Amino acid sequence: MFSFIPQLLIILSLAGIILIVVRRTPELRFPMPVHLKNAENFAARWLKAAFQKIWHFTLEVKELTRKTEGLLPKHLPKLHLPSRADLHLPSFGLRKGSGAGALIESGELALKSGDIMAAEQHFIGAIKIDSSSEQAFAGLGRLYLAQNKAKEAVETYKFLVKHHPDEAAYSAGLGQAFYNQGAYDSAVAEFERAIELEPGNSRHLLNLAMTLEAMNHLEEAILNYRRAIELNGHDSLIILKLCDALIKKGEKDEAEQLLQNLLLEEPTNNQAREKLMQIKY
Fold first, then answer.
1. Domain that holds residue 277
2. How far is CA 71 from CA 65, 68, 138, 230, 233, in A?
3. Are 252 and 246 in contact (CB under 8 A)?
4. Distance between CA 134 and CA 157 in Å, rounded?
5. Per the domain annotation, does 3 fall within a domain?
6. Worst-scoring range by mean pLDDT, 50-54, 111-115, 133-137?
7. Residue 277 covered by a domain
8. Where are the TPR repeats (predicted)?
9. Alpha carbon distances (Å) from 165 to 158, 185, 190, 261
């Protein structure tokens, strides 16, 4: 590291000797301008100060070398730092379920406002974060039913029924999807399953009755309409559906009586009034 110091000392020494010789040789003396004399004096002082500092530094280095000799190893071992691949760093990936709730909430709001495309994107985004999100699949199923996308609805509700077999709403949703596809036998099976899981829900009986009516099983359809009315006698939709089935079967008198009773409770029900007029005239 300090191998250049001897050469530097020799050069500075020679420069000093030459300067002294020039100053003391009469033949080489000649008048000099003031600014050159000042420059010469400055150079002489600078060389003297530099020589002294270098000399002191050399002495200090020699003293330090003498004191530390034998304390430090001559050959230090080479450090081997681990590469990035060797480091076992913790993974900070997105936690399962993180952010899915916010997307589901946004999807529900979009669905209520009628923005179907935005709702679908939000629900699918939630599923990408949490592939087993029950709420996201349920929202997506209702969305597909509203769009009458029977195939997509069937696949979605099949997933929900498989993973949540005790939820009547998912069996009912799958039954509705099958109904929209025209797969009435499968729809009946799902509606019956929903009734088993939730026997007090009149809507499951209504759905079953409508499916049976679509299959031209009027007797069974009427039976289930009546069962639904027993659970919820004030549901005008169930009463109107029962009247339609009775009219098809030829039992117009009972249908007329049911419609008159409905109009007493709901005088502004135009559907009931129109059906009653059709029976009478």
1. 223-281
2. 10, 5, 75, 102, 102
3. yes
4. 10
5. no
6. 50-54
7. yes
8. 134-167, 168-201, 202-235
9. 10, 19, 11, 40
Do residues 128 and 98 lie in contact, with contact meaning Cβ atoms separated by under 8 Å? no
> From CA 211, how far away is CA 39, in angstroms rounded?
115
CATH code, 273: 1.25.40.10
Within a domain: 61: no
SS3 of 149, please?
Answer: coil
Return the DSSP state at 78: P
pLDDT of residue 67: 47
Cα–Cα distances in angstroms (integers) from residue 138 to residues 91, 127, 175, 220, 276, in the given order? 31, 11, 14, 30, 39
The structural domain count of the chain equals 1
pLDDT of the residue at 101: 86
| Distance in angstroms (rounded) separating the CA atoms of residues 19 and 25 | 10
Distance (Å) of CA 37 to CA 31, 43, 138, 195, 271 = 9, 10, 100, 118, 123
253 falls within a domain:
yes
Please work out, in degrees rounded to the nearest 5, the angle formed at the alpha carbon of residue 233 by the alpha carbons of 231 and 235. 105
Residue 78's pLDDT is 38
Residue 117 structure tokens? 């495309």
In whole angstroms, give the CA distance from residue 127 to residue 96: 10
